[in-house]
Amino acid sequence: MRISKFKSILFLLPFLLCFIIFWLIPIIFGIWISLNNWNLSTGIHRFIGLKNYIDIFTSGNMYNAFFMKALKNVLIFVLISVPPLVIVALCLALIVDNLPNKLKPVFRTIFFISYSVSVTAVASIFLWLFNGNGGFINNILINLGIISSPINWLNKQPYAWIALVITTIWWTIGYNMMLFINSLNDIDQSLYEAASLDGANFWYKFKSIIYPSIKNVLVFVILTTTIASFNLYGQAKLITAGGPSQSTTTLIMNIEKTVFGLNQLGAGSAMAILMGIIIMLISFLQMIITREKDEIRR
Q: What does residue 36 show for φ and ψ, rounded to 5 degrees?
């Protein structure tokens, strides 16, 4: 019994070490830094308690403006990006799942390949597509007679948000789609056959067979997509540069500016800690809402 218990501890040890070294210690150190007035360039630091956090929540303070403006921006992005990222991925998964078996691997690869492209390459592609002067999308829309003059996609709202959402969908949709496809593959085909014999339409099959079977994966996709959207950085940094008028500036961009631009490591760490807390609260709230909806359906 003792030997078996010892073996179990040995198996867990690598995970525990990685957890402590790469997660727990950095978080504790980050919290400690956030309680200091820490100058990055000189390395000089002084304990100031919760002052960095108080400054962030004090109206009129520079750090308050940095944090609150960026928080508003990322919340907007979460609201407008998460629904299409989940719904489009699920629709594509349902389409691919109903294709002939020979075609399924081909379309899986086609849709997933964009996920393997670096954010720099993605930004270069969409900077060309959304270019206000001679961009591909503007040329197509003008030639089709949909618009009479070019749209300034990257320097005017709401077009800048539209450009970022489209970019994010194209870039990351393959990951969510593959999760849904793997979940759909686990559904017993006899359930579909029985439903078809009863004359069930697609909506009934989705409600009675598909949704209950992929529910856990759906919750996981919503949570991970929300967290990913909240961590928006690369697309906004490279495509819109936070503009127009800082309307697409994100929390990570302003944390970067605070730490590396203003050399205020303590204030930047406080912003990062608050950002992590907000993400956890949103994730927890989503899980509660999902559970309540499931209980109501039952």
A: -125, 155
Contacts (Cβ under 8 Å, ≥6 apart) of 50: 35
Residue 46's SS3 state is strand
Compute the chain's Rg from CA coordinates: 24
Q: If you average pLDDT over every residue of the chain, what do you get? A: 90
Q: Name the residue among 119, 246, 213 with its Cα closest to residue 171.
A: 119
Enter the CATH code of domain 59-297.
Answer: 1.10.3720.10
Alpha carbons 108 and 93: distance in angstroms, whole number = 9
Cross-strand partners of 45: 38
Query: Considering the entire predicted model, what is its pTM?
Result: 0.90
Q: Give 47's contacts (C-beta < 8 A, 6+ positions apart).
A: 35, 36
What residue type is assigned to position 184 of the chain?
Answer: L
Which helix or strand (DSSP H or E) is residue 221 part of?
helix 211-230
Go through the chain and tell me how many residues it has: 298
Structure tokens given for 154: 């990257």
Q: What confidence tens digit (pLDDT) does each residue in 269-293 have?
A: 999 999 999 999 988 887 787 776 6
| Element containing residue 278 per DSSP (H, E) | helix 265-297
According to the model, what pLDDT value does residue 2 have? 60
- What is the distance between the alpha carbons of residues 56 and 82, in angstroms, rounded to a whole number? 27
Among residues 95, 124, 127, 130, which one has the least CA distance to residue 110?
A: 95
